Amino acid sequence: MSRIGKRELVIPDGVTVDVNNNNVKVNGKLGELTLDVKPGIEVNIEEGKVLVKRANDTKTLKQLHGTTNANINNMLIGVSEGFKKELEINGVGYKFAVSGNTLTISAGYSHPVKMEAPAGVKIESPSQTELTISGFDKQKVGEFAAKVREVRQPEPYKGKGIKYKDEFIRRKEGKKAA
Question: Residue 178: which pLDDT band, with cuts at 50, 70 and 90?
Answer without folding.
Answer: low
